[in-house]
Amino acid sequence: MTLLAAIPYSSGFQIDGFMTGLALRLKARGLRLGGVVQHNDGTCEEGCLSMALEDLASGVRFPISENRGAASAGCRLDARGLAAAGGALTAVLDGATDLVIVNKFGRQEMLGRGLREEIAAALMAGVPLLIAVRQDFLVAWRDFAGEDWIELPREEEAIEAWALSLARVPA
Fold this sequence. Notes:
The chain is α/β, with parallel strands linked by helices. The chain is built from six helices and seven strands, in the order βαβββαβααβαβα.
């Protein structure tokens, strides 16, 4: 069975909440999780979402929204926060982790930045990895991931069955 699974989703689908709920469900089943899920906790001063990545192993949240001030036209990703979250993700690869969850393969990863290196490190360490990929990024995802991955539906039961089949916990 392949160690890499992606959940395609359409633009507009609330993937952040879905992935957070999924992580809670998998933790409740006894899986030791690493990785990050995104929380959108209200608004920045300029009206964009205040984004943070939660380290699933520790619960620490890393802010990833850069406040650009009241005159800005939108949100901007804070690369320092993303790098800090990436460091936390890499740290769990040395421990006993059943599954790494990465909230999504997004624009930064498509451009060769973001959490690409951490995703690759998890796979090189032989740790199963679950990630969401917006449908318009699937071509870039395939270029990055190759062919050794499975596509999972946006159904919690199917995802949970895949994760439990790879983990060392009873189903």
